[in-house]
Amino acid sequence: MDWGRSNVNENTFTRIETLKIDNTHYVQRATLTALETETTYVYRVRSGTNATVTFTFRTAPRPNTPIAVAWWGDNHQGTVTLRTHIANMLAHGPDMICVAGDMVNSGNAIGEWHNYWFKPLEHLNCAQTRPVIFARGNHDGEHALAYAYSALPGNEAWFAFDYGPCRFIFLDSETETSSTPEQLAWLENELSRLETQRAAFRIVCFHRPPWVNLWNGGGHTGETWVRNDWVPLFAQKNVDVVIGGHAHNYNRGASNGVTYVISGGGGGTLDIERVANWPLFTVEYSRYHFCLMEVDQQTLTWQAFDNNNQLIDLFTLQSRVPVVEWKDLNANDGVVSFTVKGKPGVRYLLQGSADMTSWTSLATNVVPTSGPPVITNTIAVDQFQRFFRAQVAP
What angle do CA 151, 157, 161 make, to 5 degrees? Predict the structure, then answer.
């Protein structure tokens, strides 16, 4: 692998890991280390005198950098639809692609990994130029090929990572808590981490959703164990968005402050038969679609587009992390005004300090659930130097 910041001839990486699938299929992996954050690199893959063209990629952005992430699930055999999605989503400029599982029909079929997954991702050099992360679906299975044809963080089944202002958490819904209690323990620990709680948004993705409205053939209305084991934890630990697939349609709703999205319109046969009417879902489409999530500082914007690139859903979320801003930089008669911006319905404690060591409570604000998510505070200041902060009230 030849690579560098501006020229592929700057470095050559030869410690390539080779994994033999069978006599005619091999997986080659190159792992570059010590790359700099939010930096653009160029690379090519070479074997003897044969080489690819030069591709470009950017490493993960800094916490304050805006990001755009494309989502879909359940592309299966729908290669024509997926190629259409890829052309449409690339026009929106995503930095990363996340998939809610079921990339193939049969995880033990080598030809499907080639035809249903890798070939569509080559369209317009999509996966050669940006990271692709996915949750494991029931059709992908736990077959060795499903792990051979991926390079995911952690144990490649459940894992988490930072990307821009967000903490992304991927789970494996193909193994229940009764079989793999260590996944639930890991999830509880991950969501309790101070760094995770301080992220602007906590984004969770797995394949099988807790609730399903549409399912051809009947009998499946969501995963009971996910509802019992994971859903309460999402509410307790301030998860912002949960993305699933499995049902081949689009649903969006909210429960206990958590937004749930089913994005299963990647290309598999659409589900059109109603099996339930879960009250949390307020938006529903049985259409092929992809989604775009954009995060800029404390605001998350989600859009869903059908296969004609037409907008079918839009919502925005405000981070729980408060932002304090001056409304008037000049004190008038010893009084200053500033705003606290936060997540609607959340209670914030406003504090003041003269030395940033000892803090005094000044006010408690609840962000309104309608209108702008902003509260104005007017505070008397009797010291020359004064500091202010806001945090989620206990």
Answer: 70
- Residue 327, pLDDT score: 78
**Residues with pLDDT less than 50, the chain:** none
Alpha-helical segments (H) within the chain = 79-90, 110-112, 119-122, 144-148, 181-192, 194-198, 224-229, 231-236
- CA angle 243–247–249, rounded 5-degree value: 85
Q: 150 with 117: CB under 8 angstroms?
A: no
Indicate left, alpha or beta for 309 from its phi (over 0: left) and psi (-120 to 50: alpha). left
The token pair at 167 is: 């903490």
Cα–Cα distances in angstroms (integers) from residue 227 to residues 101, 195, 208, 234, 271, in the given order:
19, 26, 11, 10, 21
Predicted confidence at residue 384, as pLDDT, reads 64
Instruction: Give the chain's largest Cα–Cα span.
Output: 83
| Structure confidence by residue, pLDDT tens digits, 260-309 | 999 999 999 999 999 999 999 999 999 999 999 999 999 999 999 999 99
Name the CA radius of gyration of the chain, rounded: 23
Contact 113, 145 (CB under 8 A): yes
Considering Cα of 382, then 383, then 386, then 390, what sign does the dihedral take?
Answer: negative
For residue 180, count other CB atoms closer than 10 A to its CB.
15
Instruction: Give the residue ranges of DSSP H helices in 222-312.
Output: 224-229, 231-236
The total of other beta-carbon atoms located within 10 Å of residue 161's CB is: 15
Q: Work out the burial of residue 74: count CB atoms within 10 Å of its CB; fewer than 13 is exposed, 13-18 middle, 19 or more buried.
A: buried
pLDDT at residue 137 in the model: 96
CA distance 82 to 48: 33
User: CA geometry: angle at 127 spanning 270 and 72, to 5°?
Assistant: 25
Q: How far apart are CA 20 and CA 31, in angstroms?
A: 18
Q: pLDDT, tens digit, for every residue of 131-174?
A: 999 999 999 988 888 899 888 999 999 999 999 999 999 999 99
Residues whose CB is less than 8 angstroms from the CB of residue 207 and which lie 6 or more positions away in sequence, other chains included: 73, 100, 101, 102, 135, 136, 137, 138, 173, 174, 244, 245, 246
Q: What is the layout of strands, in order, in the sheet containing 323-332? A: 323-332, 335-341, 374-380
**Residue 148, φ and ψ in degrees, nearest 5:** -65, -35
In whole angstroms, what is the distance from residue 135 CA to residue 61 CA?
22
Q: Is the pTM of this model over 0.70?
A: yes
